[in-house]
Amino acid sequence: MTISEFKTHFKKELSLLYTDSENGFLSSIFVEKIVGLNPFYQRRFSGQELLLDDEQKLVAAVSALKTGRPYQQILGETEFYGMTFFVNEHVLIPRPETEELLEFAIKKSGIMNCTAGKI
Q: How many domains are contained in the chain?
């Protein structure tokens, strides 16, 4: 299976759960994390055959998504406020609104930014 074929498979299998834009975003994230190609290289090498191990991991991810499991749990990580956090079924996944709330609280409290522009 090529990268392009996987993305078509992803969209076909998950079209009832996600919009086209969500499908594109999620398939790109999974290819990046599992195969190691950023979106630019995914487009450039869309005809590249996937390694069997990578293909199996990607197909397993699609199966997990079909059960309704959050993609962050499948990947085992999520990004929050510029940092990567471990995620499993026992962890609440931070939402974008939580980052907005944190920024509001920081501004309201007058806390100054420290290293790397973060708290």
A: 2
